[in-house]
Amino acid sequence: GLEVLALDAYDGGGSTAMNGGVVYAGGGTAIQREAGVEDSVDDMFRYLKLETQGVVRDSTLRRFCEQSAQMIDWLSGHGVRFDSTLYAAKTSYPPQGYHLYHSDSSLSPRAAAVARPAARGHKVYSPPTSAPVGFGVRITDPLRERASRLGVRFMAQTEVRQLIVDQDDNVVGVKVVQIPPGAAAAQFARLMQQAARFQLMLPASFPGSGITSGIALRYWRKAEALKSAHAVERRIRARHGVCLSTGGFIQNRPMA
Questions:
Q1: Per residue in 126-153, pLDDT tens?
Q2: Whole-prediction pTM value?
């Protein structure tokens, strides 16, 4: 029943769209069961408790494990497609054609002594491709399409700069910088797409990656200059609240 407005500094998806399209989940997901992988909430919890070493509260960690299978069901219900082809060995990323794998270290003797190992890396289904990254769009695109059908409005090229609070410190809105729809916004989007294309052309460890990254940087600087010239400041009132999706504030401990 809420009226929802989604704001993104670029075109949406962020690093999730750029990444390998992997969701870490366990405790007996539908995909695990289909692949014949035995897992339980208790085994997942014991393993992660060993890895996190108290950084995460037991109650939070337990809740994550208990809701893990539901998360996969929720994503699937909104159009994200997973696959149960199992790669049984430990790997940082599954070979082409495999989608369920041991993304963690639960197979190690140290971990296996504490909890039964299980494949918990759920890579979204995608046709064979030579691209090294970018599978995450198979998570973000279905979710965006579903949200749009449910009435969520999306504003691209709209960077949130500041929360607006009242005298009682209640969040009542946001201050944004936006390139108004039109020729400048379209050009900004094209420049950012070119920057992303060159940035992703070669992994950082490959010869020549410095050249492609340099070209990407030039496109990015052109985009930022265009934004500085055309962006306008707006204030948006929130009737019920503001939800921040920022990647976890990993570099800002007070906010974490």
A1: 877 666 567 889 999 999 999 999 999 9
A2: 0.82
Question: How far apart are the C-alpha atoms of 52 and 62, rounded to whole Å?
Answer: 12
State the DSSP H helix or E strand holding residue 237, giving kind and residue range, or none if neither: strand 232-237
| N-term to C-term CA, the chain | 30
53-83 pLDDT per residue, tens: 998 999 999 999 999 999 999 999 999 999 9
d(CA 23, CA 21): 7
| Rounded Cα gap, residues 157 and 173, in angstroms | 18
Q: Residue 170 corresponds to which amino acid? A: N
Handedness of CA 68, 73, 74, 80 (dihedral sign): positive
Q: Whole-angstrom Cα distance, residue 117 to residue 91? A: 14
Q: Which two tokens stand for residue 252?
A: 């800002």
Contact by Cβ (8 Å): 116, 126? no
Which position has the token pair 């500094």? 9
